[in-house]
Amino acid sequence: MRSTKQRNIILDIINSSYEHLDAYGVYEKAREKIPNISLGTVYRNLNSLENAHLINVIFDGSDKLRYDRNENHQHFICTKCHKIIDIYDLDFKNVKTYQNNLVMNYKIVLEGICEECQKEE
Amino acid sequence: MRSTKQRNIILDIINSSYEHLDAYGVYEKAREKIPNISLGTVYRNLNSLENAHLINVIFDGSDKLRYDRNENHQHFICTKCHKIIDIYDLDFKNVKTYQNNLVMNYKIVLEGICEECQKEE
DNA sequence: AATTAAATAGTAATCATTACTAGTTGGAAG
DNA sequence: CTTCCAACTAGTAATGATTACTATTTAATT
């Protein structure tokens, strides 16, 4: 992965934001620095940065993905308005509520490379 | 939520399958029972069943969502081929591997209704 | 049996994301 | 420093999963 002006700016936007931006939001912020940056470039870099484990994707239940810093924390996601709240103090012994948010269920996903894909190439 | 033939069959397909079907896969299985069922009906019912917490959605990193039984278990998802593996014996003390799958990172999401949305109606 | 809101089939529309193309550039190797 | 080329970019077109729409049907209550 080469270091380009576009990629560095996109990574910086994600790392310095606490807004859980979607691709278009990143695009808008990136245009402040590079006015003619292409939306396709933003998508391509968000994907490659995610593959390189430099940023994270969040599926919030809406039709668009959101992007997040690569920092150890968890999320509460509202199933009505799709708001994302960062969690730094998760206590699994009592998760019926988190602060004043009502928790209905939780999901744990391990991500990685499966046995078959490890064998390839 | 009314009980319809279509909705009951869709719920039954999800509950009796271990394949983590996507919407089109559910549609294909549903057509075996109701040949002229509409794809829109499948999408609409998958959404309403999920809102009613009768089934679960899984985001596997691909461009389509997948649907799962509402049963307490977790998932390993391969970031290369998007394979989903059910986990019934998650041990958080050692998650560098799960069986022979290499775990790169994990995500925990609490889902529910945020403080603001609880106030509404 | 009448009523009506919710659901359906079939089709059209949306729009987030990806693909494509011609031109540009990072950075490795001489 | 120059050459070189795979990786990258801007701009635009295409894709396709999902949702919206409309006329008709139906669950289930009174």
Description:
2 copies of one chain form a homodimer. By secondary structure, the first copy, chain A, is α+β, with helices and mostly antiparallel strands. Chain A has 2 domains: 5-69, Orthogonal Bundle (Arc Repressor Mutant, subunit A); 74-120, Dna Ligase, domain 1. Chain A is 33% helix and 28% strand. Chain A has 4 helices and 6 strands. A two-stranded antiparallel ribbon of chain A has the order 1-2. In chain A, strands 3-4 form a two-stranded antiparallel sheet. The longest helix of chain A has 13 residues, at 39-51. In chain A, 24% of the residues are buried. Chains A and B meet through strand 1, strand 3, strand 6 and helix 4 of A and strand 1, strand 3, strand 6 and helix 4 of B.
